[in-house]
Design goal:
CATH superfamily of the largest domain: Glutaredoxin
Number of strands: 7
CATH class of the largest domain: Alpha Beta
Largest sheet: 5 strands, mixed
CATH architecture of the largest domain: 3-Layer(aba) Sandwich
Helix content: 55-70%
Shape: elongated
CATH topology of the largest domain: Glutaredoxin
Strand order of the largest sheet: 3-5-4-6-7
Structural class: alpha/beta
Protein backbone atom coordinates (compact mmCIF):
# COMPACT_ATOMS: atom_id res chain seq x y z
CA UNK A 1 0.00 0.00 0.00
CA UNK A 2 1.29 3.45 -0.91
CA UNK A 3 2.25 5.61 2.06
CA UNK A 4 1.54 9.33 2.02
CA UNK A 5 3.48 11.78 4.15
CA UNK A 6 1.28 14.63 5.36
CA UNK A 7 2.19 18.26 6.10
CA UNK A 8 3.18 17.49 9.69
CA UNK A 9 5.58 14.80 8.55
CA UNK A 10 3.65 11.74 9.71
CA UNK A 11 2.54 8.78 7.61
CA UNK A 12 -1.11 8.56 6.57
CA UNK A 13 -2.78 5.69 4.79
CA UNK A 14 -5.75 5.94 2.46
CA UNK A 15 -7.90 3.75 4.71
CA UNK A 16 -8.04 6.26 7.56
CA UNK A 17 -7.54 9.47 5.60
CA UNK A 18 -11.03 10.68 6.59
CA UNK A 19 -10.02 10.77 10.24
CA UNK A 20 -7.40 13.49 9.67
CA UNK A 21 -8.27 16.56 7.60
CA UNK A 22 -6.96 20.02 6.81
CA UNK A 23 -9.72 22.61 7.22
CA UNK A 24 -10.22 26.08 5.84
CA UNK A 25 -12.65 28.78 6.90
CA UNK A 26 -15.01 27.54 4.18
CA UNK A 27 -14.93 23.90 5.31
CA UNK A 28 -14.70 24.50 9.07
CA UNK A 29 -18.41 24.17 9.81
CA UNK A 30 -18.69 20.88 7.93
CA UNK A 31 -15.38 19.39 9.09
CA UNK A 32 -15.61 20.48 12.74
CA UNK A 33 -19.01 21.70 13.91
CA UNK A 34 -21.16 19.26 11.93
CA UNK A 35 -18.72 16.36 12.25
CA UNK A 36 -18.55 16.81 16.04
CA UNK A 37 -22.18 15.73 16.29
CA UNK A 38 -21.08 12.25 15.19
CA UNK A 39 -17.76 11.97 17.05
CA UNK A 40 -15.53 14.36 19.03
CA UNK A 41 -13.23 16.41 16.80
CA UNK A 42 -9.76 17.53 17.88
CA UNK A 43 -8.79 20.84 16.27
CA UNK A 44 -5.05 21.42 15.89
CA UNK A 45 -4.18 25.08 15.25
CA UNK A 46 -0.64 25.24 13.86
CA UNK A 47 1.70 27.00 11.41
CA UNK A 48 4.53 25.91 9.15
CA UNK A 49 7.06 28.07 11.06
CA UNK A 50 6.15 26.57 14.46
CA UNK A 51 8.67 23.93 15.60
CA UNK A 52 6.60 22.58 18.54
CA UNK A 53 3.63 22.20 16.14
CA UNK A 54 5.67 19.76 14.06
CA UNK A 55 6.39 17.72 17.17
CA UNK A 56 2.79 17.63 18.34
CA UNK A 57 1.10 16.99 14.97
CA UNK A 58 2.26 13.39 14.48
CA UNK A 59 1.35 12.53 18.09
CA UNK A 60 -2.20 13.80 17.58
CA UNK A 61 -2.54 11.90 14.32
CA UNK A 62 -1.25 8.67 15.84
CA UNK A 63 -3.67 8.85 18.77
CA UNK A 64 -6.65 9.71 16.56
CA UNK A 65 -5.93 6.77 14.27
CA UNK A 66 -5.59 4.47 17.26
CA UNK A 67 -9.11 5.50 18.31
CA UNK A 68 -10.38 3.80 15.10
CA UNK A 69 -13.06 6.30 14.16
CA UNK A 70 -14.13 7.35 17.65
CA UNK A 71 -12.15 10.60 17.29
CA UNK A 72 -11.31 12.87 14.37
CA UNK A 73 -8.55 15.39 13.83
CA UNK A 74 -8.84 18.63 11.89
CA UNK A 75 -5.70 20.69 11.29
CA UNK A 76 -5.91 24.44 10.72
CA UNK A 77 -2.99 26.48 9.41
CA UNK A 78 -3.53 29.79 11.21
CA UNK A 79 -1.53 31.76 8.63
CA UNK A 80 -3.95 30.67 5.91
CA UNK A 81 -7.01 30.88 8.16
CA UNK A 82 -6.51 33.75 10.63
CA UNK A 83 -10.25 34.13 11.18
CA UNK A 84 -10.40 30.67 12.76
CA UNK A 85 -7.52 31.56 15.08
CA UNK A 86 -9.42 34.70 16.07
CA UNK A 87 -12.58 32.71 16.69
CA UNK A 88 -10.69 30.48 19.13
CA UNK A 89 -8.92 33.49 20.68
CA UNK A 90 -5.56 31.83 20.03
CA UNK A 91 -2.66 33.59 21.71
CA UNK A 92 0.07 31.02 21.04
CA UNK A 93 0.49 27.76 19.15
CA UNK A 94 0.24 24.86 19.01
CA UNK A 95 -3.26 25.27 20.40
CA UNK A 96 -5.53 22.24 20.54
CA UNK A 97 -9.27 22.18 21.21
CA UNK A 98 -11.77 19.35 21.48
CA UNK A 99 -15.19 19.97 19.96
CA UNK A 100 -18.19 17.75 20.72
CA UNK A 101 -21.78 18.39 19.67
CA UNK A 102 -20.71 21.75 18.25
CA UNK A 103 -19.13 22.95 21.50
CA UNK A 104 -15.55 23.31 22.70
CA UNK A 105 -15.28 20.96 25.68
CA UNK A 106 -11.54 20.76 26.35
CA UNK A 107 -8.22 22.10 25.16
CA UNK A 108 -4.55 22.75 25.82
CA UNK A 109 -1.72 24.93 24.55
CA UNK A 110 1.83 23.78 23.81
CA UNK A 111 3.52 20.60 22.64
CA UNK A 112 2.61 18.14 25.38
CA UNK A 113 4.29 14.73 25.65
CA UNK A 114 2.45 11.78 24.13
CA UNK A 115 1.28 10.48 27.53
CA UNK A 116 -0.53 13.74 28.28
CA UNK A 117 -2.02 13.95 24.79
CA UNK A 118 -3.25 10.38 25.25
CA UNK A 119 -4.88 11.36 28.55
CA UNK A 120 -6.54 14.28 26.76
CA UNK A 121 -7.94 11.91 24.12
CA UNK A 122 -9.01 9.37 26.74
CA UNK A 123 -11.10 12.05 28.46
CA UNK A 124 -12.95 12.64 25.21
CA UNK A 125 -13.53 8.94 24.65
CA UNK A 126 -14.69 8.46 28.24
CA UNK A 127 -17.27 11.21 27.77
CA UNK A 128 -19.00 8.91 25.34
CA UNK A 129 -19.65 11.43 22.59
CA UNK A 130 -22.31 14.11 22.27
CA UNK A 131 -25.17 12.45 24.13
CA UNK A 132 -26.01 15.11 26.70
CA UNK A 133 -25.45 18.70 25.60
CA UNK A 134 -26.27 20.21 28.99
CA UNK A 135 -23.87 17.90 30.81
CA UNK A 136 -21.14 18.59 28.24
CA UNK A 137 -21.59 22.33 28.63
CA UNK A 138 -21.40 22.08 32.41
CA UNK A 139 -18.26 19.97 32.16
CA UNK A 140 -16.70 22.40 29.67
CA UNK A 141 -17.41 25.34 31.99
CA UNK A 142 -15.85 23.47 34.90
CA UNK A 143 -12.77 22.66 32.84
CA UNK A 144 -12.45 26.26 31.61
CA UNK A 145 -12.70 27.50 35.19
CA UNK A 146 -9.90 25.13 36.19
CA UNK A 147 -7.73 26.37 33.31
CA UNK A 148 -8.40 29.96 34.36
CA UNK A 149 -7.35 29.15 37.93
CA UNK A 150 -4.12 27.65 36.55
CA UNK A 151 -3.45 30.84 34.60
CA UNK A 152 -4.22 29.49 31.12
CA UNK A 153 -6.46 32.43 30.23
CA UNK A 154 -6.19 31.89 26.47
CA UNK A 155 -7.64 28.36 26.44
CA UNK A 156 -10.20 29.20 29.13
CA UNK A 157 -11.36 32.25 27.15
CA UNK A 158 -11.69 30.16 23.99
CA UNK A 159 -13.85 27.56 25.74
CA UNK A 160 -16.09 30.16 27.40
CA UNK A 161 -16.35 32.04 24.09
CA UNK A 162 -17.34 28.94 22.13
CA UNK A 163 -20.02 28.11 24.71
CA UNK A 164 -21.44 31.62 24.30
CA UNK A 165 -21.59 31.20 20.54
CA UNK A 166 -23.96 28.29 21.15
CA UNK A 167 -25.66 29.68 24.26
CA UNK A 168 -25.40 33.50 24.33
CA UNK A 169 -27.32 33.69 27.62
CA UNK A 170 -25.22 31.17 29.53
CA UNK A 171 -24.54 33.10 32.75
CA UNK A 172 -21.67 30.87 33.91
CA UNK A 173 -19.87 31.33 30.58
CA UNK A 174 -20.48 35.10 30.61
CA UNK A 175 -19.09 35.34 34.13
CA UNK A 176 -16.15 33.09 33.30
CA UNK A 177 -15.19 35.00 30.17
CA UNK A 178 -15.55 38.33 31.99
CA UNK A 179 -13.21 37.06 34.72
CA UNK A 180 -10.70 35.96 32.07
CA UNK A 181 -10.82 39.42 30.50
CA UNK A 182 -10.39 41.08 33.89
CA UNK A 183 -7.42 38.88 34.77
CA UNK A 184 -5.83 39.55 31.37
CA UNK A 185 -6.25 43.30 31.80
CA UNK A 186 -8.93 43.58 29.11
CA UNK A 187 -11.15 45.66 31.37
CA UNK A 188 -13.28 47.22 28.63
CA UNK A 189 -14.28 43.77 27.33
CA UNK A 190 -15.08 42.60 30.85
CA UNK A 191 -17.30 45.65 31.43
CA UNK A 192 -19.07 45.10 28.12
CA UNK A 193 -19.85 41.48 28.95
CA UNK A 194 -21.14 42.31 32.42
CA UNK A 195 -23.29 45.11 31.00
CA UNK A 196 -25.04 42.52 28.81
CA UNK A 197 -26.30 40.56 31.82
CA UNK A 198 -30.08 40.90 32.38
CA UNK A 199 -30.96 42.70 35.65
CA UNK A 200 -32.63 39.59 37.07
CA UNK A 201 -29.35 37.67 36.68
CA UNK A 202 -27.05 40.38 38.07
CA UNK A 203 -26.97 38.72 41.49
CA UNK A 204 -25.82 35.34 40.14
CA UNK A 205 -22.67 34.13 41.96
CA UNK A 206 -20.75 33.84 38.67
CA UNK A 207 -21.58 37.43 37.76
CA UNK A 208 -20.80 38.66 41.27
CA UNK A 209 -17.42 36.90 41.07
CA UNK A 210 -16.69 38.52 37.70
CA UNK A 211 -17.69 41.93 39.01
CA UNK A 212 -15.34 41.51 41.97
CA UNK A 213 -12.54 40.41 39.65
CA UNK A 214 -13.11 43.52 37.53
CA UNK A 215 -13.07 45.82 40.56
CA UNK A 216 -9.85 44.23 41.81
CA UNK A 217 -8.27 44.59 38.37
CA UNK A 218 -9.23 48.27 38.25
CA UNK A 219 -7.69 48.81 41.67
CA UNK A 220 -4.56 46.90 40.68
CA UNK A 221 -4.02 49.23 37.72
CA UNK A 222 -3.47 52.02 40.23
CA UNK A 223 -1.02 50.01 42.34
CA UNK A 224 2.69 50.75 42.27
CA UNK A 225 5.48 48.26 41.46
CA UNK A 226 5.51 45.22 43.78
CA UNK A 227 9.14 45.69 44.82
CA UNK A 228 8.57 49.31 45.79
CA UNK A 229 5.48 48.42 47.81
CA UNK A 230 7.33 45.60 49.58
CA UNK A 231 10.09 48.05 50.46
CA UNK A 232 7.54 50.50 51.87
CA UNK A 233 5.94 47.78 54.00
CA UNK A 234 9.33 46.51 55.19
CA UNK A 235 10.39 50.03 56.14
CA UNK A 236 7.13 50.71 57.94
CA UNK A 237 5.01 47.63 58.79
CA UNK A 238 2.28 49.99 60.02
CA UNK A 239 1.82 51.52 56.55
CA UNK A 240 -1.60 49.98 56.05
CA UNK A 241 -2.27 51.73 52.75
CA UNK A 242 0.93 50.31 51.26
CA UNK A 243 0.08 46.81 52.49
CA UNK A 244 -3.41 47.01 50.96
CA UNK A 245 -1.96 48.27 47.68
CA UNK A 246 0.63 45.47 47.79
CA UNK A 247 -2.13 42.88 48.17
CA UNK A 248 -3.91 44.33 45.13
CA UNK A 249 -0.74 44.17 43.07
CA UNK A 250 -0.01 40.59 44.13
CA UNK A 251 -3.52 39.52 43.13
CA UNK A 252 -3.14 41.20 39.75
CA UNK A 253 0.07 39.23 39.23
CA UNK A 254 -1.63 35.93 39.99
CA UNK A 255 0.11 35.60 43.35
CA UNK A 256 -3.14 34.92 45.17
CA UNK A 257 -1.76 33.22 48.27
CA UNK A 258 0.60 36.10 48.93
CA UNK A 259 -2.25 38.59 48.45
CA UNK A 260 -4.39 36.72 50.98
CA UNK A 261 -1.45 36.60 53.40
CA UNK A 262 -0.95 40.38 53.24
CA UNK A 263 -4.63 41.08 53.83
CA UNK A 264 -4.83 38.66 56.75
CA UNK A 265 -1.75 40.29 58.25
CA UNK A 266 -3.36 43.70 57.87
CA UNK A 267 -6.56 42.48 59.56
CA UNK A 268 -4.49 41.02 62.39
CA UNK A 269 -2.58 44.30 62.84
CA UNK A 270 -5.47 46.74 62.55
CA UNK A 271 -8.84 45.14 61.93
CA UNK A 272 -10.89 48.37 62.00
CA UNK A 273 -8.53 50.46 59.83
CA UNK A 274 -10.31 52.48 57.15
CA UNK A 275 -13.75 51.03 57.94
CA UNK A 276 -12.44 47.43 57.85
CA UNK A 277 -11.05 47.92 54.35
CA UNK A 278 -8.78 44.86 54.56
CA UNK A 279 -11.61 42.49 55.52
CA UNK A 280 -13.85 43.85 52.76
CA UNK A 281 -11.03 43.54 50.24
CA UNK A 282 -10.31 39.99 51.32
CA UNK A 283 -13.96 38.98 50.91
CA UNK A 284 -13.96 40.55 47.44
CA UNK A 285 -10.83 38.57 46.57
CA UNK A 286 -12.46 35.35 47.84
CA UNK A 287 -15.49 36.05 45.65
CA UNK A 288 -13.31 36.69 42.60
CA UNK A 289 -11.35 33.46 43.09
CA UNK A 290 -14.47 31.35 43.71
CA UNK A 291 -15.49 29.18 46.64
CA UNK A 292 -14.05 26.04 45.06
CA UNK A 293 -10.53 27.45 45.20
CA UNK A 294 -8.44 25.83 47.99
CA UNK A 295 -6.82 29.22 48.70
CA UNK A 296 -10.28 30.55 49.51
CA UNK A 297 -11.16 27.64 51.80
CA UNK A 298 -7.95 28.02 53.79
CA UNK A 299 -8.24 31.81 53.84
CA UNK A 300 -11.81 31.77 55.13
CA UNK A 301 -10.80 29.49 58.01
CA UNK A 302 -7.96 31.81 58.95
CA UNK A 303 -10.19 34.87 58.66
CA UNK A 304 -12.78 33.29 60.95
CA UNK A 305 -10.07 32.48 63.49
CA UNK A 306 -8.94 36.11 63.44
CA UNK A 307 -12.42 37.62 63.71
CA UNK A 308 -13.71 35.35 66.43
CA UNK A 309 -10.59 34.82 68.53
Amino acid sequence: MQTIIDEHGSPASGGDAGLVKDATAASFKKDVIDASREAPVIVDLWATWCGPCKQLGPILEKIVRQAKGKLRLVKVDIDKNPQIAQQFRVQSIPAVFAVADGRVVDGFVGALPESQVKAFADRLLAAGGPDDGAAETAEAIQHAAALMAEGDLGTASAIFGQILQQEPDNIAAIGGLARCHAKAGNLAQAKELLASVPPEKSGDPEIAAARSALELAEQAEKSGPIDELRARVAANPSDNAARLELANGLYAGGRNEEAVEELLDLIKRDRKWNDEAARKQLLKLFEALGNGNPIVSAGRRRLSALLFS
